[in-house]
Amino acid sequence: MKANVSADWTDIGFGVDIRDFLDARGHKLGIFERHFNNTGERCQGGAILFDGINQFDGYPQWDVVSFDPLTIKTEIKCSRCGHRGWIHHGKWVSR
Length: 95
Known about the structure:
six-stranded mixed sheet, mainly beta, globular, single chain, three-stranded antiparallel sheet
């Protein structure tokens, strides 16, 4: 499956930015998330794939409650630095 990434990052608070992860037709498959780790360096958190929308078998997927504003039910935890939280009403909520 061919996929694209939107060019613009959106600040959702607490030093967390997101941008869309799209399929070739422009349908949103998920988002990419980045944040600052506890030493103040930028950490590329990775892809947040939306459950039931894409075909990335074997990868974790997150439950979307609302697309606009974006609300993701499942906690997001960075496997690189342990940063964690949720996206609720388009904003980052720290744990």
